[in-house]
């Protein structure tokens, strides 16, 4: 059986500032299991790119191996893409970003691809501060190889056969914070209202942005006893606050008390209602974020939302002081300036 999307357009279909509609950001029809959380994440990425007026051909999608790494095929079919070896996506993304810094790099990985075989690569891409958005579609199992437990599966979580996980999980958001990531968030594939603003903020962040997204596997990890099922996450989720993303404009300042809601009119005339959580913590304090994550973990709750952001973060290009012009566009003369320049470089190192 074959499937195709209709070519008809609704007369009131949303069109962004570039003249693009949602269809311009779509990809192939998904072959993942019906109801897979990964498809919800793909749809959220499509929505975020549409609202941010991102040109699809200025995006590079990077992935490794696994169900999660198939999902870049299901969004932004007019963008660049590279499906790499299992766990090695960060190396490929680093090389691509150094060659062409003008693209937006979106890396999509899984809990097995990142927290097991790719753990070393993940650690080093964080500390290098590569300018990219790194997404982990976290379901706690290896969906392509019949549902074995992954390294992020919660202690005591039961498999489909009823066996309990005996090992402590690797918490990727805590690891990202400790390694120096400058934008860290966690979300749930079933919470589009939270996920889309987080994606928009992460795509606009300069530096390494990391989002761990709990994305239940409907085939192997969505049963009673699983701590990464849709029902369990919905019952145990706690948000850091209501999320929205506002592009850079002249600053709008408001003051109101914790536990209260404040109405704010934005530059475009739209109105937002902000709610300040009673359990507020400073999102620019890395250690406060780690403390909050641990506090809710001990209570059996999953803390979602923006956990940490460094407003004035630097990235790999600044750290290495590389050319502001993409390396892939440099001429032969710029790349090979001649023997005299080489002598001068060697002399400076003596």
Summarize the structure in words.
The chain has 350 residues and is α/β, with parallel strands linked by helices. It has 2 domains: 22-240 and 281-318, Thiamin diphosphate (ThDP)-binding fold, Pyr/PP domains (Rossmann fold, 3-Layer(aba) Sandwich); 251-279, no CATH class. It is built from 12 helices and 12 strands. It has an 8-stranded mixed β-sheet, with helices on both faces. It has a two-stranded antiparallel sheet with strand order 5-6. Strands 10-11 form a two-stranded antiparallel sheet. Helix 7 links the parallel strand 7 and strand 8 (208-214).
Tags for this entry?
alpha/beta; Rossmann fold; 2 domains; 8-stranded mixed beta sheet; two-stranded antiparallel sheet; 12 helices; 30% helix
Q: Averaged pLDDT, please?
A: 89
The CATH homologous superfamily of the largest domain is named Thiamin diphosphate (ThDP)-binding fold, Pyr/PP domains
CATH topology of the largest domain: Rossmann fold
Major sheet strand order: 2-1-3-4-8-7-12-9
- How much strand? 15-25%
Number of domains: 2
């Amino acid at each position: 059986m074959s499937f195709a999307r209709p070519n008809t357009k609704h007369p009131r279909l949303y069109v962004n500032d570039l003249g693009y509609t949602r269809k311009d950001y779509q990809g192939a029809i998904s072959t993942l299991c019906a109801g897979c959380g990964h498809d919800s994440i793909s749809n959220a990425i499509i929505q975020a790119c549409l609202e941010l007026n991102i040109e699809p051909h200025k995006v590079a999608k990077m992935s490794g191996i696994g169900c999660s790494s198939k999902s870049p095929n299901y969004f932004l079919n007019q963008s660049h893409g590279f499906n790499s070896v299992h766990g090695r996506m960060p190396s490929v993304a680093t090389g691509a970003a150094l060659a062409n810094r003008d693209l937006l790099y979106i890396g999509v990985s899984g809990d097995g691809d990142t927290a097991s075989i790719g753990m070393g690569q993940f650690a080093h891409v964080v500390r290098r501060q590569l300018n990219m958005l790194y997404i982990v579609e976290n379901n706690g199992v290896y969906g392509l190889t019949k549902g074995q437990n992954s390294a992020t599966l919660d202690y005591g979580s039961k498999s489909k056969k009823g066996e309990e996980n005996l090992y402590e999980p690797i918490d990727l958001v805590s690891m990202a914070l400790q390694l120096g990531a400058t934008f860290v968030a966690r979300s749930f594939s079933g919470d589009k209202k939270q996920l889309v603003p987080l994606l928009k903020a992460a795509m606009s962040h300069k530096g390494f942005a990391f989002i761990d997204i709990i994305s239940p596997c409907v085939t192997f990890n969505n049963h009673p006893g699983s701590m990464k099922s849709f029902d369990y996450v919905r019952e145990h989720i706690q948000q850091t606050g209501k999320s929205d993303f506002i592009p850079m404009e002249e600053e709008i300042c408001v003051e109101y008390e914790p536990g209260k809601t404040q109405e704010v009119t934005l530059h475009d005339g739209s109105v937002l209602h902000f709610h300040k959580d009673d359990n507020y913590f400073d999102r620019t304090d890395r250690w406060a974020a780690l403390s909050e994550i641990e506090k809710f973990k001990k209570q059996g709750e999953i803390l979602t939302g923006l956990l940490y952001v460094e407003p004035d973060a630097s990235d790999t290009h600044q750290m290495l002081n590389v050319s502001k012009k993409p390396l892939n566009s440099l001429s032969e003369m710029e790349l090979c300036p001649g023997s005299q320049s080489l002598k001068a470089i060697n002399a400076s190192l003596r």
